[in-house]
């Protein structure tokens, strides 16, 4: 897998070859002076908890992580806040509105897709559903399930950042052990 920055051999502005060597998060063209930053894309996910303190998990319908558990969420659109992002994703993936949205934590997530590893920064929230009457598996969702804290197996979860967030949430459910 390659990092997105490694895909640039030529300047995206003038087309001249870029100098070789190790790059971090930017490319600089000596020919036209372009300084182009490639920072972490942002995504947001949400731990939706019901009145019985169960968490809503989605079974992913597509790769990466096809068949594994995930949380409602996805990449932020340009100009969208993380809160708007996670509310939109909940509507698109499971057709529900969220209430009591609270920031939980963040975690880096190496997201491998079509031969490229994207260095995503995932932001996680907790929320309650406004209503479950419209709950349905929609976009990119095979199915969904509710799991009590003692039923959650981190090995069944698709991404390291989601495992981190769920584990972080679980630790807050039982402080001190």
Explain what this protein looks like in three dimensions:
- The protein folds into two domains: 1-39, no CATH class; 42-173, Nucleoside Triphosphate Pyrophosphohydrolase.
- It is an alpha+beta fold and 177 residues long.
- 15% of the residues lie in helices and 34% in strands.
- The strands form three sheets. It has a four-stranded mixed beta sheet with strand order 6-3-8-7, sandwiched between helices.
- It has two helices and nine strands, in the order ββββββαβββα.
- It has helices at residues 82-94, 160-173, and strands spanning 26-28, 35-37, 42-48, 55-60, 69-70, 73-75, 98-113, 116-129, 141-147.
Write down how many β-strands occur, each being a DSSP E stretch of 2 or more residues: 9
Strand content: 25-35%
Amount of helix: 10-25%
Q: Kindly state the mean pLDDT as a whole number?
A: 94
Strand order of the largest sheet: 6-3-8-7
CATH fold node name of the largest domain: Nucleoside Triphosphate Pyrophosphohydrolase
Broad CATH class of the largest domain: Alpha Beta
Class inferred from helices and paired strands: alpha+beta
What radius of gyration results from the CA coordinates?
19 Å
Q: Count of helical segments?
A: 2
The parts where pLDDT drops under 50 for at least 5 residues are none
């Amino acid at each position: 897998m390659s990092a997105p920055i490694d895909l640039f051999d030529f300047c995206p502005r003038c087309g001249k070859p870029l100098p070789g060597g190790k790059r971090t998060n930017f490319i600089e063209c000596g020919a036209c002076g372009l300084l182009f930053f490639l920072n972490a894309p942002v995504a947001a996910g949400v731990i939706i908890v019901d009145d019985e303190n169960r968490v809503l998990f989605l079974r992913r319908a597509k790769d990466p992580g096809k068949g594994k558990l995930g949380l409602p969420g996805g990449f932020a659109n340009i100009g969208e806040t993380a809160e708007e992002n996670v509310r939109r994703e909940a509507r698109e993936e499971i057709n529900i509105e969220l209430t009591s949205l609270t920031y939980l934590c963040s975690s880096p997530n190496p997201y491998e897709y079509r031969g490229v590893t994207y260095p995503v920064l995932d932001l996680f929230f907790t929320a309650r559903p406004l209503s479950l009457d419209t709950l349905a598996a929609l976009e990119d969702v095979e199915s969904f399930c509710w799991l009590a804290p003692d039923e959650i197996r981190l090995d069944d979860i698709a991404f390291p950042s989601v495992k981190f967030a769920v584990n972080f949430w679980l630790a807050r459910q039982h402080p001190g052990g």
